[in-house]
Amino acid sequence: MGRAPCLSQICASRIFFLRTQAHCRAHGTQPQPTSPPFPAAVNPPNPAIVSQDAARPLPRWALLLLCLAYVVSGFVGRSPWKSVDVMSLGYMLELARGHTDWLAPQLLGLPAAASDGLLPYWLGAWAIQATAPWLDAAVAARLPFIALLGLTLLATWWGVVYLARRPQAQPVAFAFGGEAKPDDYARAIADGALLALLACLGLAQLAHETSSYLVQLACTTLVFYGAAALPYRQWLALGSFGAGLCGLSLSGAPGISALLGLGCLILLWRAPADALPQVPMLRKRWSLTMLACTALAAALTAALGLWHWNVGDTWLGWQDWRNLLRLLLWFGWPAWPLALWTLWRWRQQLLHTPGPPHLLLPLWFVLVSLASTFTTQPADRSLLLGLPAMAALAAFALPTLKRAMAALIDWFTLLFFTALALALWVVWVAMQTGVPAKPAANVARLVPGFVPGFSWPPLLLALGASFCWCALVWWRAARHRAPIWKSLVLPAGGTVLCWLLLTTVWLPALDYARSYAPQMQRLVHALGAAPGCVQVGGVGRPQAAALLYHTQLRLVAARPTSACRWLVVDADNWPGRVPGVVPHEWQLAARIVRPTDKDDALLLLRRITETTADAP
């Protein structure tokens, strides 16, 4: 597929066609079928009409500051949250301390899930070992994951840059000049894609946890970048492609790795010869390299025993279908409506063989993510992997948006995020002062036992973010704002604002509600001084990790030969489902519940018959 015809060519063709029709009518002849109104049968018209003024890039300092605020907030100043976040930290601690095998990590006798892979635990353990004398284990474990989230944003931006540089993605050339230059247009589209990704509501929490979710997201984005940048940065793109596939396999997604690798290989072969530089001469070399990377990832997965089929039955019931549809509606907002608009406006290009690579590549990533969402558990984990590609599709809708639709997005976003930010501020003031009384009472009911504190640094950061939001709204309300990315500034800014408010002034309350720290403090208090060793049995992996991190106890897995006087079990599993423990030998000493979840309780049991030894 060649470059789309410019407007002058279309107008000239149309004028010639009309003159031919008039001439035939005047002389009583039939027009020849070889004079179409425009050459749409060969090259479908490009819907992107962008001037050079509209291709102005977003100021680099503003984009970097927005990304920095989003990446760092949520990783610092908090305890590990329930449940994947703290569970991953537990395995990282055991690996860093040398208490378990690196190829088969265990946590107090509980093996790691195959769906989590090994790479996330390795990264956290290496970071803990490297910074052990200086940083707390939870802070150290988050360092590589902060870098992974930053890498996700960077790879998304550059991947869309190279996609927008493709000849089929370029805007229509004007009759008298003034259309956007290729590089400026590509950077403006990439700015829009990055803003769309930051605006996705489902990215916030899952991308700020030390878990396999974020590792899979970063590796998927590396594969996306490698396939997009291949014609322009050959060796870097192939290296990124191979690293992403291997990282996906090592982080618990070998099936997605194989699907993405083979799909990118097929798209490379379907790419038209005149669409990309050097495609005819290097297609075979690139294909063999991509196939080798896919095979290497599969072989690595098989060698480590990480192949698994995590198919769930979420699609069987109506309630599950409704939950999935609700997840699809809010998780990718506002990227998915714009992505659908892109597919509609570029439909003629999509139906034209062989199809535009700048649309087919992200579309394949989104389809793989959606297929995995409907067949595996948990669904949000799979849907997270498609957000960068969905944001890329959303960015190509920006040159085709009508003024009324752009205004609708702006007004909806302005009202929604302004109201949400005001609500967060009102409830925070109620927590601090007790006024208004009703929000204060609601907070006391939701987080019983929480004592609000006050700190100036979080307050100043929250006030600064709110001031920046007001300035952004003022800028957007001004007239004659030409950049094509303008419609996504408010969604991205509003999402970052609310996330900053939650992770600054609201962080103590969230920490109290989402961490195991209050429950573990009560447990330590109930044990008293010098409890000796403590058996742990019948608990989940998040609870075991919380015991390991939040307490300084000597913990051992429950077994019949242990002489420990104390036993900690999950209330739901006692007395029937605690292997290696005889129930009549123990008596209840305390029931320890999480303040915000009465169903999440631990039982502290004391051995009835005292033993002379107190060793594991």
UniProtKB/TrEMBL annotation:
Q: Drop me one GO molecular function for this one.
A: transferase activity
Tagged with keyword Transmembrane helix: yes
Q: Which superkingdom, per the lineage? A: Bacteria
The UniProt keywords, alphabetically, are:
Membrane, Transferase, Transmembrane, Transmembrane helix
Bilayer-crossing residues are: 61-81, 143-164, 213-230, 258-276, 288-307, 327-346, 358-376, 382-401, 408-431, 456-475, 487-509
May I ask which residue range the UniProt record assigns to the signal sequence?
none
Tell me what this protein is called: 4-amino-4-deoxy-L-arabinose transferase-like glycosyltransferase
Identify the species of origin: Extensimonas vulgaris
